[in-house]
Amino acid sequence: MAYPVALRPESFLCFSPVRSKRNARSPRFSMASTIRSSSATKISKYTFSVPILLFHSSTVVDGRVETPKKPFTPHEERATFISHGNTARLAKEHGDLKLAQICGIIASDEKRHETAYTKIVEKLFEIDPDDTVIAFADMMKKKISMPAHLMYDGRDDNLFEHFSVVAQRLGVYTAKDYADILEFLVTRWKVGDLAGLSEKGNKSRDFICNLAPRIRRLEERAHGRAKKAPTIPFSWIFDRE
């Protein structure tokens, strides 16, 4: 799945591309099966106590592999649902009904994942709103790349970036989608209504609630950058541009 490289400045956007390397480390995924619901348990002490990937696996932050405990997956699953749904639509428009069917099935599966993870983080906001909103804001401030940034075809070291530009240009996944997802989660988790937070928690809440409008102001710039980007051949479609 592609995340638009045009979503900049990178200082406050979660997904930004990292240059692919042939020897890049593959992401590691931590397994867990239960959520510890004791209100005395701080979010910072959850050791992957939520199902797979909720607080995420190893990922890339500023070019380094890290393992942050952040509410990452609800955002990622909704993004995957949107991108596969849009791919299904494009495939159908161009007459490839089988590909449209495959992408539609994947999108439906991702929607179920999104629903589950969103409900889990919703519970975490009830248990420990302060640490959860701080973790949410911290995640959104860091430059985090999806595992897809590791894609490499043996010749293009910037393959993920080039792929992301095409996704933005075709409407598979765009800056608008990114802002829409953030607004959806902020509303669903009632982040703007959080009260009784610490000073850091209040600042984190305000940062998150003001972030989507800032991203929307970049939307036109992002679309323009994608339209002006040169065409690049992709090896897996026989070097078509």
UniProtKB/TrEMBL annotation:
Reported cofactor(s): Fe(2+)
Biological process according to GO: fatty acid biosynthetic process
Pathway(s) it belongs to: Lipid metabolism; fatty acid metabolism
Entry's Gene Ontology cellular component terms: chloroplast stroma
Molecular function GO terms recorded: metal ion binding; stearoyl-[ACP] desaturase activity
Keywords: Fatty acid biosynthesis, Fatty acid metabolism, Iron, Lipid biosynthesis, Lipid metabolism, Metal-binding, Oxidoreductase, Transit peptide
Family indicated by similarity: Belongs to the fatty acid desaturase type 2 family.
Oligomeric form and interacting partners: Homodimer.
Protein name: Acyl-[acyl-carrier-protein] desaturase
